[in-house]
Design brief:
2 copies of one chain form a homodimer. Chain A has 3 helices and 9 strands. With 148 residues, the first copy, chain A, is α+β, with helices and mostly antiparallel strands. Chain A has one domain: 2,3-Dihydroxybiphenyl 1,2-Dioxygenase, domain 1, CATH 3.10.180. Chain A has a 7-stranded mixed beta sheet. The first copy, chain A, has a two-stranded antiparallel sheet with strand order 8-9. Chain A is globular and about 40 Å long. Chains A and B meet through β1, α1 and α3 of A and β1, α1 and α3 of B.
Chain lengths: 148, 148
């Protein structure tokens, strides 16, 4: 796995409110954004906003303050993401994470948005999605480049 | 405020264990790392590991699953960070965040590590540190460049 944090998703209660807050701070949403998700280029990483419940559901964890699957302290409302160049790279990265002591939270598979992704948790329960998104461009260094 | 996520800190229970996990995935720690904190360049953003209790203490929030200061759902064990070029830029960014509807969690002030920083929470309680770290180099685009 290339050592790269591509994207971080913040779970939010009200997407319009959250988007307006970050826009007031100067963030500008990429064209991939829609009524369900916002993607902001954030200087080398993408900051995404997504419904908190939808994020928990996508990761197959319970949106509870304690004791949800794979997390010692409950769902943090945040997921880190590593974007890979291919489905095979997703499989390889998830296998590596598990071999290193991570916990497989959601096996890789086709996603509703047309990609391929799975989730693992690090030893402290921090959630990582490993994803191949065929609609995102990755630059030579592997960074997600959003169309603006 | 420049729309930039500079660094993300994961609160961890055992720094050595967490560092070993990320090193097994291919992350390499920068020279600023020590027995209390690890900094990994992560492709345009810095991934930091820090004691979970120490992180909560630094942000002046309670490390409880629910009801801690400024967060609707308790401490997530994660803090985002925006690194600014000067103390004045820290003050300006915090003021902007509050004007936009964020909550001031910790007013800016000198830090134990020789910098200047404060914290705000976004409308969903996600914690942001705004910091000037005189020991970090920022490139032309404002990204933190770690000495390796």
């Amino acid at each position: 796995m290339q050592p790269r944090l591509s994207l971080i998703t913040l779970g939010v209660a009200d997407l319009a409110r959250a988007r307006a807050f970050y826009e007031a701070l100067g963030f500008k949403a990429g064209r991939a954004s829609n009524d369900n998700v916002t993607f902001f280029p954030a200087g080398g990483v993408v900051l995404a906003l997504f419904g908190r419940g939808a994020l928990a559901e996508d990761a197959t964890v319970a949106d509870t303050p304690t004791g949800s699957a794979g997390t010692a302290r409950g769902f943090a409302g945040i997921a880190l993401a590593h974007n890979a160049r291919s489905e095979a790279d997703v499989d390889a990265a998830l296998a590596e994470a598990v071999a290193a002591g991570g916990k497989l939270i959601k096996p890789a598979g086709k996603t509703f948005w047309g990609g391929y992704a799975g989730y693992f948790a690090d030893p402290d329960g921090h959630l990582w999605e490993v994803a191949h998104n065929p609609y995102f461009t990755l630059d030579d260094g592997g960074r997600v480049v959003l169309d603006m």
